[in-house]
Structures are given as C-alpha cells and as structure tokens.
What we know:
Blueprint: E1 7-11, H1 16-27, E2 31-36, H2 39-48, E3 53-57, H3 63-76, E4 80-85, H4 99-102, H5 104-129, E5 135-142, H6 153-176, E6 180-187, H7 205-217, E7 222-224, H8 227-237, H9 239-247
Parallel strand pairs: 1-2, 1-4, 2-3, 4-5, 5-6, 6-7
Helix pairs in contact: 1-7, 3-5, 5-6, 8-9
Bound molecules: NADP nicotinamide-adenine-dinucleotide phosphate.
Amino acid sequence: MELVGRTVLITGGARGIGREMARLLTGLGAHVIAMGRDGAQLDQLAAAHPGQVTTYSLDLADPQALDSAIAGLRSSHPELSVLINNAGVQVSADFIAGEAHASLAALRREIAVNLQAPVALCAGLLPVLARHPHAAVVNVTSGLAIAPKKSAPGYCATKAALRTFSRALRYQCEDEAPQVRVLDVVMPLVATDMTRGRGGAKMTPDEAAARLIGALRSDKSEVFVGRSLVLRRLMRLVPGLGYRLLRDA
Ligand SMILES: NC(=O)c1ccc[n+]([C@@H]2O[C@H](COP(=O)([O-])OP(=O)(O)OC[C@H]3O[C@@H](n4cnc5c(N)ncnc54)[C@H](OP(=O)(O)O)[C@@H]3O)[C@@H](O)[C@H]2O)c1
C-alpha cells in the first residue's frame, strides 16, 4: 500500500507505539488524524509535524464522545482510507480477593477502549474506507491474546476478542469490499508506559511502529511482531509450554 498523501486515523496516536507510528507516517507523506485524551500531548504531536496532523481529543470509553467524533470524521474526512485501532489500556486485578470488584469501573473502561471503541470505529468508518480503491483497517492485538497471563484477564480477553473480530470483519471485506484489507498486528512486549516497571526483553516503540508500518505496506492480513512470532510457533508445537511461559508474565 502506498502511503504518500493518505489520511490515516490512529487511536492513541500521541503516546507510545501510536506516537511513533504518527512520526513514521508523516515522514512518509501521510496525513495523520490522532485521537487520545491528553490534549497537551496531541498539541505537541501537531506542533512537531506542522500541517500533517489533525487531532481529536476524546475519551474512547465515552460512547457519546466517540459517536460524535465518528460523525465528524464521516463528514469532514471523506479522504480517510486507513484506520489504526491502536489505543489500549491494561488493568491488573486480583479477582479472588475482591480487588477486581473494587476496580470494576476500570475493568469496564478497559473493555470499552480495547474492544468496544474499535468495533464502533469500524462500524462508523468502514463505509468511508470502502469508497477508496485501496484501504485498510489495522487492529493492534497482543501475544497475550494467544496465551493469556493471570494478572490481567480482562486485557487478554479483549485482545483475543479483537483478533476474532478482525478475522470475521476480514471475511466481510473479502466478500463485499476486497479493496479494504483487515490487518491484525500481534505485538510482543514493547517498552512504553503500559509496560513501565515490568521486566523482560522489550522491543522499542519505534521498532514496533516500523514493523506495523511495514505490515501495512505489505499485502499481509496477520503479522506477528518480534517474539510474538516465536510464541505463535510454540503454541502450534507445544501449546502447554507456551501457556506456562506467559501465565505469570
Ligand atoms: N506495550 C506493549 O508491550 C504492548 C504489547 C502488546 C500489545 N500492545 C498494544 O499496543 C497498543 C499501544 O500500546 P502502548 O504500549 O503504546 O501503550 P501506551 O504507551 O500506554 O499508550 C496507550 C495509548 O492509548 C491511548 N488511550 C488509552 N486510553 C484511552 C482512552 N480512554 N481514550 C483515548 N485514548 C486512550 C493513550 O492516549 P491518552 O492517554 O492520551 O488517552 C495512548 O496514546 C495497545 O493496543 C496495546 O494493548 C502493547
């Protein structure tokens, strides 16, 4: 896929992997629409790439704010041809000791940001994307969708659901809008705010973003980045070992 002159929407585009994607995409001549809650970080991103970034400051867990943003995008950005569902949150919670019950609001927000928002964005924006001769939806998932860890059951479940959603959506596009590619990018552990304080070998966010952009430019529909490819192979050969390795990660 050629990226020069394209308009690309990135949720969570002002921080972490999303910010690196925005930097790389503007460097390739794309126009980026970045979404996030933090207006100051969005302003910084726009200032760093004058004329190449449009910002939408909103909470993706707020359905009314999201509906209104989607309506704005549909009317103001008919040129939009790539949607990257990147924003995500991870909530650790012990379900036995009552911690999860006390954190129910955060767990509900996790489902809203990681799953409900991508579904709503696809529902609202696929008709716009499908008007272009080449378009793409990219959903950012995780190795934890394949082998979950015990500390964040909700997060792992949302990423597994997003993978399944991606596949079913891909079937619809294959049959009714083959010009729209649905790409699932399975990320490994990446050094961002989400994983701050956690051990383990981490990929840098610029490398993770570069791999995603490389996948977007290819014709693939599923890409396992870095160690998530090792995990995928392990899950095919010795799934019990894969589950054990991630269980207490
Ligand atoms: N880091 C990893 O090891 C790893 C591994 C596998 C998959 N992933 C996935 O990669 C994606 C990017 O993660 P990251 O590591 O870059 O995380 P990050 O540095 O924590 O960034 C998360 C991004 O999501 C946005 N976001 C979170 N809650 C939001 C909300 N309620 N409304 C709007 N935007 C919201 C944040 O923007 P604001 O704070 O401004 O709202 C931020 O831009 C996520 O989907 C994550 O699950 C990450």
